[in-house]
Backbone:
């Protein structure tokens, strides 16, 4: 069997970084996308090249807010078996204080440009016996969060797209799924104060916050042949916080 190539959009983020490591450990060659944090993703690539010398690792820069960057990103991809959207940003702000630019950037980064990119690269996925598309969605895309209305709406749109596109490409043996994390202990949640964290922890039946490894484990499973018959699903990784 030849090399398997995956594109990780957002490889420089905490969740993206862990997904890259787990995929590499499972034999994947990777396109490592970043927007601005070249130093971090370059360090990751050097580590992976040292640990997995028979696999290939390539850096790709693209601003997910710019349509022209998406065109450039698509043209940089050759063989492709899987694409994982692990990028994005949250927005903790009341709707009355949210600008149209805030909303536009959320939807461009999380929904509009990922859809545009998939329109450009699905033909590459179709060439293989099995391929996969995976979004790192959010618990807030399902149940919504106060003071994160715009972010929740963008994540809900991601989830809706997953369900629709799964039907569109199922005949081509391409699976489309999302992993919806609950509270993952990352810098994205650093705005949550200690008192609020304690209250959230009391609501999570598992009694612990999730880790980036928990998310990566689910993503890697969905890229595997064991998940060939799973498509259009939102896999909740939340310790029972939302069921």
Residues:
């Amino acid at each position: 069997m030849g090399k398997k190539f995956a594109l990780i959009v957002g490889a420089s983020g905490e969740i993206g970084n862990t997904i890259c490591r787990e995929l590499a450990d499972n034999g994947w060659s990777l396109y490592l996308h970043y927007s601005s944090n070249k130093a971090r993703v370059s360090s990751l690539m050097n580590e992976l090249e040292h640990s997995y010398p028979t696999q290939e690792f390539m850096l790709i820069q693209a601003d997910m807010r710019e349509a022209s960057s998406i065109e450039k990103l698509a043209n940089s991809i050759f063989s492709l078996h899987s694409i994982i959207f692990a990028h994005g940003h949250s927005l903790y702000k009341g709707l009355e204080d949210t600008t149209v630019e805030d909303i536009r950037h959320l939807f461009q980064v999380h929904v509009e440009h990922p859809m545009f990119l998939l329109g450009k690269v699905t033909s590459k996925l179709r060439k293989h016996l099995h391929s996969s598309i995976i979004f790192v969605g959010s618990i807030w895309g399902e149940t919504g969060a106060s003071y994160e209305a715009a972010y929740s709406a963008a994540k809900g749109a991601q989830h809706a797209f997953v369900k629709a596109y799964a039907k569109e490409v199922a005949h081509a043996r391409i699976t489309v799924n999302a992993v919806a994390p609950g509270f993952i202990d990352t810098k994205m949640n650093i705005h949550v104060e200690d008192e609020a964290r304690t209250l959230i922890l009391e609501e999570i039946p598992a009694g612990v916050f999730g880790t980036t490894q928990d998310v990566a484990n689910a993503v890697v499973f969905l890229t595997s042949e064991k998940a060939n018959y799973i498509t259009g699903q939102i896999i909740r990784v939340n310790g029972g916080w939302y069921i």
